[in-house]
User: Fold these one by one.
Assistant:
Number 1:
Amino acid sequence: MTENKKKRIGILTSGGDCAGLNAVIRGAVHYADQLGWEVVGILNGTHGLLHRPVKAEVLNPDDFDGNILRRGGTILGTMNKGGVFDHKMPDGSSKDLSDDIIEGVKLLKLDAIIGIGGDGSFAILQKLAKKGGFKMVGIPKTIDNDLGKTEVSVGFDTAVMVASEALDRLQPTAASHDRVMILEVMGRDAGHIALSAGIAGGVDVILIPEIPYTLDNIAKKIASVKEDGRNFGLVIVSEAVKTEEGEKAQQSFIDGQVRYGGIGQYIADKLYEMTGSETRVTVLGHVQRGSAPTYRDRLLATAFGVHAVDLIKQGKYDRMVSWSNRQVIDVAIDDAIAAYQQVDIDGTLVKTARALGVSFGDK
Ligand code: F6P
């Protein structure tokens, strides 16, 4: 049923940023404005709701500088650490911030909230919405593309473009120096970025967490490339790939957090040792998140922003917008949270790569 009443809706970005978030915000604000509704941008994810007065501002299409569609990052700011129900305090203790956040939502007098996030953010927002009795819809964003029930999330296409372009830049220098170049990319526990960029960037070896490898098989592939008369090699490795012994490559940060990092150097050292080929490593890191969005991300983001407002118009809540079969649909947000999506090792892209002779270093 369509609800015609004038509404005041909140919108926030949560979790790691990515390209296309501003395009989502723009799409939602334009459509809501057409409906005569007011949109309140909540700053710094749920953490803006902890401040008094709440950190939020009304968003009008007229306030956008014609460039918002093209801009990376998020004009609202975001937060990907600390937690809500068990927020880590500086002294190491945990605190439940949920009541203060829910009070913040009530102070804003919102009819519903659009949360732009990944599975972790959605799980927190859903829990908050249930506890606080407010309504929400979700828009999937993550460069990792690991959220279930949608073919693609905002930010993935741009991250793949950046990684592919990095390979385009690594190839000439690899060829000039007879080197094997290893590109380490993000993606958390899913190898989607490495797989897509690896195919698009014409690599010899793709290493993803979903396919166990042996160093021997990677070395054999590099040796065969050389035997075939090519003087360079390209390898792409996903950050969550483990060492051959099954250890995670991680780094501890000064704030106590542990993040992926280092598998590229591990592979490079081993390959150097085993093949004698000179190796170099590039860790792409947050460069994958900070670019201007590709046209695909802009389209997806805009369509998602509009559809999320439409869901609220129809009074459909606890839904996540989703891309499926060339259109936007919506699914139960709880189903999406529960359906973590790693690479399908029997899927089209893995088959395509194999058909090209790309090695996954399979055990
Ligand atoms: O989930 C997005 C992501 O970019 C991952 O690919 C990566 O492992 C992580 O976030 C990095 O987090 P941070 O921004 O805290 O360094």
Number 2:
Amino acid sequence: MDLKEKELIYRLNRDEKLSEAEYSELIKGRDEEAAVLLANLAAEKRKAVFGDAVYTRGLIEISSNCRNNCLYCGIRRDNQNAKRYRLTKEEIISCADEGYGLGFRTFVLQGGEDPYYTDDVLCGIVSAIKCGHPDCAVTLSMGERSKGSYRKLYDAGADRYLLRHETADAEHYFKLHPKEMSFENRMRCLRDLRETGYQVGCGFMVGSPFQTDETLAGDLKFIELFRPEMCGIGPFIPHHDTPFAKEKAGTVELTLFLLSVIRLILPKVLLPATTALGTVDPDGREKGILAGANVVMPNLSPKEVRKKYELYDNKICTGEESAQCSKCLEARMRSVGYRLVVDRGDAPGFK
Ligand code: SAH
């Protein structure tokens, strides 16, 4: 690590903002020594805000049907080999009930953009979960919808919404998505979600095709300015039935580095150690926590459908029961000195 790199890291640690050019220098100049320093500073910051608590979210993958055709995603519309399913309201409620018994106080409903989940259907599901478990938060991750739809879902009780921006560079966005999708609409959705009152999560894949140190610097600047309550980043992993089948996966090393940088930019952010990180490295999630993450999202989907929600190849945790998944993660967190807490885990200062 040269002096310049060290100075950039310490400036971040003092809550100074870097320019986009400096963010890209920071990324380009990284080495193991820089990564260790960053991770230590990030862990200190995270400890000051959250202590040794790691929040846990029960992920319910409600549908593998999708009207979109994102070039990286295994459940894209044109993938004829994708196995399609959708969970009914009753199935989703029963996953949440089981999760409640396992100590989850946040449920994340994620899925492809499946037109079956109209506002009425999805509002009915959200309000049924909130009615059964008033002490729980519901997070939605159901893609792009209208502002009116976001408002109805919020009024039905949804607390948070995850919508990764995917990349803050319009041209890069265009290379990852079919032409009928737009960067402007993605950004519009994030603004609408914020204005509606949600705790909002953005994020991106690390090592996605055509990504550069400069586009990553743009992502960091976007995160610094948008100040999301949550931020999901994980390595891109190719899926064999997509146009990006032959592309290289993102690395653990860069993902961990960026997790630490994001923790320093936004000390209070809710930052998951993602399943994708656990897929590219068997100890990826533990390493993610040590680099500054403070959230894990074990799978609560019914075992029968887990393999079908295949966004990328070799996804982990598709053979286990929910109870096994949550026990396993609990042990993994304990092994690195952290503990999973039974708590909604809202963004500090929110509500
Ligand atoms: N339909 C919802 C949920 C998408 S899946 C939405 O549009 O927000 C959640 C995230 O998985 C995506 O935002 C994307 O960043 C990530 N993802 C999709 N395909 C992936 C792949 N091949 N490798 C790694 N992450 C992927």
